[in-house]
Amino acid sequence: GAGVSQSPRYKVAKRGQDVALRCDPISGHVSLFWYQQALGQGPEFLTYFQNEAQLDKSGLPSDRFFAERPEGSVSTLKIQRTQQEDSAVYLCASSLERGLTSSNEQFFGPGTRLTVL
Amino acid sequence: GQQLNQSPQSMFIQEGEDVSMNCTSSSIFNTWLWYKQDPGEGPVLLIALYKAGELTSNGRLTAQFGITRKDSFLNISASIPSDVGIYFCAGLRPFQGAQKLVFGQGTRLTINP
């Protein structure tokens, strides 16, 4: 498909377990973003990549959260030693260009719903 | 994390009615965006606003970027069943660098046929 894809769509983890969430952006998109969406809330920014460089990780809630995009395309968000408060939908978005341009729309994937028991 | 103040939180309307929702902030934004999110999907962009005072339409949707750059509203005219969903405002601050969106809490729209 031509859109942003994420896998798995659903993940159930036991507290303390490590998880890895994958994002396949739209081909050719330079920028990639991760957002966390708690139940009943709007998405909150986690981190941003421009190609393979992680330029902003100010939204990562703790050092248990780690994201990478080693080849500038697919990205993985890893959460170590998951806690119940990590339960949320994790959204990935990509955009064509870098920088602040008026036409730089972010296209969102369907998200991964993480439930930590 | 900081979010925009979006209201109302939910709306229950009859099909055919007009809808209005708004977003406010104590901080200035230089871009306002309105998204719609369906269950199990990511947000989809509806309208983007780039200048203070700008009024933009997209079919039955109309949105405005407040003159103070601290607020925006979205109107939907003659609502239809497929308008059901959650609507989010989002903003970008000046000198933010990358497009680090700040979202509102959402307005859940329910339509009675």
Question: How are the elements arranged and paired?
Answer:
The complex is a heterodimer of chains A (117) and B (113).
Chain A: E1 5-7, E2 10-13, E3 19-24, E4 31-37, E5 44-50, E6 53-56, E7 65-68, E8 75-79, E9 88-95, E10 107-108, E11 112-116
Parallel strand pairs in A: 2-11
Antiparallel strand pairs in A: 1-3, 3-8, 4-5, 4-9, 5-6, 7-8, 9-10, 9-11
Chain B: E1 5-7, E2 10-14, E3 19-24, E4 31-37, E5 44-49, E6 55-58, E7 61-65, E8 71-76, E9 85-92, E10 102-103, E11 107-112
Give me some keywords for this one.
heterodimer; A: 117 residues; mainly beta; seven-stranded mixed beta sheet; four-stranded antiparallel beta sheet; globular; B: 113 residues; six-stranded mixed beta sheet; five-stranded antiparallel beta sheet; 11 strands; 0% helix
Provide a descriptive summary of the structure in words.
The complex is a heterodimer of chains A (117) and B (113). Chain A is 0% helix and 47% strand. In chain A, a hairpin with a 6-residue loop joins β4 (31-37) and β5 (44-50). In chain A, the strands form 2 sheets. In chain A, strands 2, 4, 5, 6, 9, 10 and 11 form a 7-stranded mixed β-sheet that branches. A 4-stranded antiparallel β-sheet of chain A has the order 1-3-8-7, with no helix packed on it. By secondary structure, chain A is mostly beta strands. Chain A has strands at 5-7, 10-13, 19-24, 31-37, 44-50, 53-56, 65-68, 75-79, 88-95, 107-108, 112-116. With 113 residues, chain B is an all-beta fold. Chain B has no helices and 11 strands. Chain B has strands at 5-7, 10-14, 19-24, 31-37, 44-49, 55-58, 61-65, 71-76, 85-92, 102-103, 107-112. In chain B, strands 2, 4, 5, 9, 10 and 11 form a 6-stranded mixed β-sheet that branches. In chain B, a hairpin with a 6-residue loop joins β4 and β5 (44-49). The termini of chain B are far apart. The model of chain B has no long low-confidence stretch (mean pLDDT 92). Chain A binds chain B through residues 4, 31, 33, 35, 40-45, 48, 50, 55-56, 59, 91, 93, 95, 98-100, 102, 104-106, 108-111, and chain B through 1, 3-4, 6, 31, 40-45, 48, 50, 88, 90, 92, 96-106.
